[in-house]
Amino acid sequence: MKKRISLLAATGLVAVGLAATPAHAADPVFTLTSPAEIGLHPHPGQDGRPQTTTVDFRVENETGSVFDRQSTYTIDLGALKGVADVKLNQDQAGDCSLAATTVTCKDWAIWTHGSGVVSLDLAAAKGSKTGAVVDLTMTGAAEGATFKPTTTKVKVGGPDLVMEKAALKAKLTPGQSQPLPIVFGNTGTDSVDGVALELQTTHGMGLVEEYDNCAYSEDDSAGQPWNVGWGTTVCTFDNVVKPGEVYEIADALTLKAAPHAFIEGLLYGVHQDGDQPKSTLKFSTPRTGKKLGLKARSAKAAPNAADLDPWNNQHEFDFAVKNTADLVSSASSAKGKAGETVKVELGFRNDGPAWVAYLRSGEEVAMADIVIPAGAKVTKAPEICRATTADGGYREEHLGAPRYFCPTTHVIGEKQKFGFPFELKIEKVVVDATGSVSVGAWSPEGATPPNWDPKHANNKAAFVINGKGVTPTPAPTAASPTPTAPTSPTATPGTSTTPNPSPSASTGNGKTPSGGLAETGSTTGPVLIAGAMLVAAGGAVFLVFRRRATGRA
């Protein structure tokens, strides 16, 4: 079994050497980084074969410019003798060589913001003793530069928190509740002093209860919750979890599907307190007078270090809530004389009751298919709209097209409106010149009503210029749609998948849940909750449920 510990660096466990040779005033100073500490499974591993841990070493360049001279990096392996066996990672692409006691790497430039130097696969050596600790140090050298070294502590043994998969019902109805069982244990060799339970749910799924030792993410930004999609809850416990012990929550945690629930997801994980992925979210803590507790299922005694296998700390679950979302095109009209330019906003709204979010795949939920009335020429169109020929074919020029396909974001809120502003020059007055605005899923032929939309008759509306006795009608409010790269949206509710989470949004009641423990072979990684952050960052993590590849990164 193989895991990569570079994630620990991403969560703040980066060791940066403080000792460095004084630099010439003009010399740049580069910082080498690596995990502060890693744990190795004692030899020979759970399945009789050595279990490797991949350690990434990097060089950071914050000087603002590329350093274009050759650099040499050296890692002294002498201290590892009898403690750990070392190999170059098979994905290693750098110019590196491995000798008996040294790893040497050369690079011809140091790019801005830095780059990887080398990845090493470490496994506990035969005859190594549990609890043995040694230092693994990398130094750097280059003409005209100074490097701050980095040291990673390598320990044989350590804690290994494992989250059990929760038995959950995948197919729900709006308003339906179910208990969320949380069970986890420590299968490692060291104790864990305090744990953090991290739970994430999507906008349509929330926790019923609130506890004082749990913090709940908040988002009061414009567009909330449609701009985010996920909500996070972090509950901390001061329990010491010894090797072999299994704990479960002692109080109720209940998941409830909101009235707008549809395609929903849950991520749940346990971390050593302080090692959970760092978050920039804003959290609030309630004052309920109630505290979520833990109770032991079994107990053992024994001897704190890095988690041996972060990949089994968490799981995911997908829900399919029986619901519909009614997309309604907005009729529009405009008046003008020949030679005049008119402004219109063309679009549609969601009358709910459900929101629709493709948080995993990143695919747009729907698009507006706009047909321009005769006698008018488009002189200004949103960049996100694709100009087409009259039959929906490819067209290179953006302006002057007879038809436009305008996508939404990956999320359509339960009462959201989308508007796309156009400007048209009336080249010839045609009485009752009629085009159309249709809404639906993308297809080569145009917008096609999705199967979750119950009323297909209102998916198309007229767009009229110079209609008889017609005055311009107000257009729908814009929702600043931004397109996202589509990905194949397929998945099975009730399955565990690797996260892409995203991170932060209110869910149901604005809070978040989760659950699970016995090692069941899940390969979801510690990016579980950290992965959710990429939703907020990229705004394109969708929840069309499809199983992702479960290979470890």
What does this structure look like?
Strands 1, 2, 3, 5, 7, 10 and 12 form a seven-stranded mixed beta sheet that branches. Helices cover 3% and strands 40% of the residues. Strand 8 (95-98) and strand 9 form a beta hairpin. It is flat, with a radius of gyration of 28 Å. The protein is mainly beta. It has two helices and 39 strands.
- Calculate Rg over CA atoms: 28 Å
User: Major sheet: size, sense and barrel closure?
Assistant: 7 strands, mixed
- What general form does the structure show? flat
Q: Strand fraction band?
A: 35-45%
Return the average pLDDT rounded to an integer: 79
Instruction: Tell me roughly what share of residues is in helical segments.
Output: under 10%
Helix tally equals: 2
Structural class: mainly beta
How far apart are the first and last residues' alpha carbons, in Å? 12 Å
Question: Would you count the extended β strands for me?
Answer: 39
Low-confidence stretches: 1-24, 299-305, 471-492, 495-553
